[in-house]
Amino acid sequence: NFSITCVNILFGAESSTVQNSILTKSQASTPVLGMTVVPMASLENNDFSLMVKWDLPQYPNGIITTYEVEIEQDGTRKSVENTTDFKFTFDELIPYQNYTVTVTPFSQLKGFSYSITERT
């Protein structure tokens, strides 16, 4: 949403002013940048985790209100969380398994997702 103001100046004096507001269509955000998934393990209590970090999309196309962070194992959705942070940790995962983590930015529209598969 933006406005345009046009001023007609004739011989150094303002003769007329026209102002108009224009509302543009929203577009979906591009995927997040710099996404990494880091496996972590605590051998004391046999806890396996994946820590996900990412950066703001190159073209958010609006204000990002939340990020949906999803984890799947063997094509089965295990958890979906919403956050406003640029990182999230999934705890209590099964060791030596492949997990696919997907981050999707949301503004007025659902943005494009980015996924990484990592092993615990």
Main β-sheet, spatial strand arrangement: 6-5-8-9
> Beta-strand level of the residues, as a percent range?
over 45%
Indicate the overall shape.
rod-shaped
Query: Which structural class is indicated by helix and strand composition?
Result: mainly beta
The value of Rg in angstroms is: 23 Å
Distance between the termini: 45 Å
Into which percent range does the helicity of residues fall? under 10%
* Strand and helix order: EEEEEEEEE
- The tally of helices reads 0
Sequence stretches where pLDDT stays below 50 over 5 or more residues: none
- What does the main sheet amount to? 4 strands, antiparallel
* Number of strand segments: 9
Overall pLDDT level: 86
Note down, in words, how this protein is organized.
With 120 residues, the chain is an all-beta fold. 0% of the residues lie in helices and 63% in strands. The protein is built from no helices and nine strands. The chain has strands spanning 2-10, 13-22, 33-42, 47-55, 66-73, 76-83, 87-93, 98-106, 114-119. The strands form three sheets. The protein has a four-stranded antiparallel β-sheet with strand order 6-5-8-9, with no helix packed on it. A three-stranded antiparallel β-sheet has the order 3-4-7, with no helix packed on it. A two-stranded antiparallel ribbon has the order 1-2. It is rod-shaped. The two termini are 45 Å apart. The model has no long low-confidence stretch (mean pLDDT 86).
